[in-house]
Sequence to fold (412 residues):
Amino acid sequence: MRKSRDLSGAQLICDVTQSWSEVGGGVGTYLRRKREYILSHTPHRHLLIIPGEEDSFVEDGRKITVTIASPRVPGSPNYRLLLRNRAVIAAFERYRPDVIECQDAYNLPWAAVRYRRDNPETAIVAGYFTDFPTAYVHRPLKRFVGNAIAGQLRSLSYRYCGLLYRKFDCVYALSESGGAAKLRELGVGNVGIVPLGVQIDEFNPRKRDPELRRSLGIGEDQPLLIYVGRLDRERRAQLVVDAFRKLPRAFGARLVLIGEGPIRDEIPKDERIIAPGYLTNRSELARWLASADMYVSAMADETFGVSVIEAQASGLPVVGVAAGAMLDRVDEETGKLAPVDDSSAIAANILELWQADRAAMGRAARDHVEGRFSWERTFKTLFGDIYPQAFEARRAAVQRNAVSAYASGTAA
Fold:
């Protein structure tokens, strides 16, 4: 039996996820920053297992990337369905990680559970990045099967979450309202909170660019609204557009939609809506955010809200909805929250916020982010709190199993 592991020496840290995209996404941003942190601040190696076009194994110093051929997700061409658990387990067996972290709740966590069964000293950790029982079960299905049946299916999905996450050595959510409270309610122990980060120097009000506004035909006295994220139904991008189109034309507002997604072609043709697509350059994204006047989101099921804190770091007040992690991100000093799926209320909040002291709200938003959300803090929490708890829980489980086996042998 191999010696029980901890973080006192170089370890192999493994991440396995469905939620990988070459063009952004919260999980992808987290994993890229995590790899950077591991290489620059720790002696550890990093194994990343992700879906891709073909099977491949790339070893580059302390970086190992395993790509497993996977089909594209219908309607979301930037994402793929990694369904080949046997290939994932084979990658585990090839590299033998010390800790495996999963960022989704579907089939891949069961591959980690299966591998740990045969390698009981390997710690497994789960991050609750998506509140899928509400985001993917209840909200979309209630339109077709009614609220009661959709609610029952959501309850069943949450029971599944409880069953799954109780098998992990440690679980973390990204915020209290974005998952931690629900996981505890489901009886999951060892639940921590690991807030994600923002590059506070890059996303900064100083990036405001009057020339960018002039190039869009927008004066300093005209409202420039901005949304950043996938243009899909989950993120309610269409609801942002609906709210914008309910604003009086005399208001003179413009709306910027930064991102790509399946509903882009459904956005009405309107000279007031600007859609530059997905921005690969983070500095350019920071310039667009800082040059706007307020951030607008209708996403009801944020578990954290990276784009929200990037907007706040850029000095923007936020118009959002009163659900999920948005409750932890936005208060009356930093913005306004509307009921879920109410485009009229969102439009009313935009108008009201424009008349408020936006400069003070922008400063409060920046202050809210500074000191709270940095990638260094994210990974200090992960490597300083979550992983040690997982290793300790694993050691305790191995010892309990050894005692139980010994007792059974004695009794026999």
The domain at 12-197+374-411 is CATH 3.40.50.2000 (Rossmann fold). The two ends are 23 Å apart (CA to CA). Residues 294 and 327 are 17 Å apart (CA to CA). The first strand starts at residue 12 and ends at 16.
